[in-house]
């Protein structure tokens, strides 16, 4: 791969990653409007409507051959089964956190995720960090450690979100399948279970959809688009960027969650939160400076 091609791939990956994390950053707004609907039911709707949306996209782009190839490969299918389990856990825990008014803890989880990504990249993919990257990582770790120490209890929501999404990113980076085809396979694997659960709720008349008088139920069909779009963007970014780069992009989402929690939802913002932000954004500044220096060095070779 030439330097120009590598730069183009990186630029595309950055655009896809930024869009994905911005969409995820405003997810609490959407799920807050679904207040009163059980998290498991919301997850089931996310899966079912995502299947429908992705089937339409796949049909329009005529990528059925990629989907068939994924099902025929035992290695690819096994990896996607693992990624499906991880992303389902992540969805359920996040929706639970929003429903229980724990947006700050969910943001803590997504602050921790980049650290998990960097660790996984070094261990499994043998990615190397330059001195400025190491310094920025240490600053981010310090910020997260300070925030974690003030929680007063094991932040299981944050830990579950961080590890599930970190491992999901690793699997999607290593599996040889296009982003849209891989996501369609993931949703198809859980689609029958999700649809069966929703049918059972409908028969039992305990479900929230369809119910024209319920604003939440009217919003549920949008779950497919809002779920699939950032995941397709993320998978595309993951295949073009190093896990360390993906890791620092992920600070966009928890930063937006923090802002929403404090300014919109009235959750407490303490000096500890302020110190954490200062450390993390200082680390991001160092990492960005290193990326610019590295880019210029390669350009002048």
Automatic annotation (TrEMBL):
<comment type="similarity">
    <text>Belongs to the EamA transporter family.</text>
</comment>
<feature type="transmembrane region" description="Helical">
    <location>
        <begin position="108"/>
        <end position="125"/>
    </location>
</feature>
<feature type="domain" description="EamA">
    <location>
        <begin position="13"/>
        <end position="148"/>
    </location>
</feature>
<feature type="transmembrane region" description="Helical">
    <location>
        <begin position="183"/>
        <end position="203"/>
    </location>
</feature>
<dbReference type="Pfam" id="PF00892">
    <property type="entry name" value="EamA"/>
</dbReference>
<feature type="transmembrane region" description="Helical">
    <location>
        <begin position="248"/>
        <end position="266"/>
    </location>
</feature>
<feature type="transmembrane region" description="Helical">
    <location>
        <begin position="154"/>
        <end position="171"/>
    </location>
</feature>
<protein>
    <submittedName>
        <fullName>EamA family transporter RarD</fullName>
    </submittedName>
</protein>
<feature type="transmembrane region" description="Helical">
    <location>
        <begin position="76"/>
        <end position="96"/>
    </location>
</feature>
<feature type="domain" description="EamA">
    <location>
        <begin position="157"/>
        <end position="288"/>
    </location>
</feature>
<keyword id="KW-0472">Membrane</keyword>
<feature type="transmembrane region" description="Helical">
    <location>
        <begin position="272"/>
        <end position="293"/>
    </location>
</feature>
<feature type="transmembrane region" description="Helical">
    <location>
        <begin position="132"/>
        <end position="148"/>
    </location>
</feature>
<keyword id="KW-0813">Transport</keyword>
<dbReference type="InterPro" id="IPR037185">
    <property type="entry name" value="EmrE-like"/>
</dbReference>
<feature type="transmembrane region" description="Helical">
    <location>
        <begin position="12"/>
        <end position="31"/>
    </location>
</feature>
<dbReference type="InterPro" id="IPR004626">
    <property type="entry name" value="RarD"/>
</dbReference>
<keyword id="KW-0812">Transmembrane</keyword>
<feature type="transmembrane region" description="Helical">
    <location>
        <begin position="215"/>
        <end position="236"/>
    </location>
</feature>
<keyword id="KW-1003">Cell membrane</keyword>
<keyword id="KW-1133">Transmembrane helix</keyword>
<feature type="transmembrane region" description="Helical">
    <location>
        <begin position="43"/>
        <end position="64"/>
    </location>
</feature>
<dbReference type="InterPro" id="IPR000620">
    <property type="entry name" value="EamA_dom"/>
</dbReference>
């Amino acid at each position: 791969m030439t330097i120009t091609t590598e730069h183009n791939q990186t630029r595309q990956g950055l655009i896809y990653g930024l869009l994905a994390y911005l969409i995820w950053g405003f997810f609490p707004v959407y799920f807050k409007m679904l207040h009163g609907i059980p998290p498991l039911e919301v997850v089931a709707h996310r899966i079912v409507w995502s299947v429908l949306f992705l089937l339409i996209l796949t049909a329009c782009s005529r990528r059925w051959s990629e989907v068939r190839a994924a099902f025929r490969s035992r290695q690819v299918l096994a990896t996607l089964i693992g990624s499906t389990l991880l992303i389902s856990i992540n969805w359920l825990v996040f929706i639970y956190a929003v429903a229980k008014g724990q947006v700050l803890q969910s943001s803590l989880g997504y602050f921790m995720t980049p650290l998990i990504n960097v660790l996984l990249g070094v261990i499994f993919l043998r990615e190397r960090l330059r001195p400025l990257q190491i310094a920025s990582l240490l600053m981010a770790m310090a910020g997260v450690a300070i925030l974690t120490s003030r929680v007063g209890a094991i932040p299981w929501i944050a830990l579950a979100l961080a590890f599930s999404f970190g491992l999901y990113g690793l699997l999607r980076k290593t599996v040889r399948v296009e982003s849209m085809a891989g996501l369609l396979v993931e949703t198809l694997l859980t689609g029958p279970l999700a649809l069966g659960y929703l049918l059972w709720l409908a028969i039992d008349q305990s479900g929230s959809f369809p119910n024209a008088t319920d604003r939440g139920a009217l919003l549920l069909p949008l779950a497919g688009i809002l779920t699939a779009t950032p995941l397709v963007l993320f998978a595309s970014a993951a295949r073009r960027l190093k896990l360390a780069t993906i890791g620092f992009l992920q600070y966009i989402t928890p930063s937006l969650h923090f802002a929403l929690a404090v300014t919109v939802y009235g959750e407490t913002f303490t000096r500890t939160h302020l110190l954490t932000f200062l450390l993390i954004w200082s680390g991001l500044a160092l990492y960005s400076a290193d990326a610019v220096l590295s880019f210029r060095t390669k350009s002048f070779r």
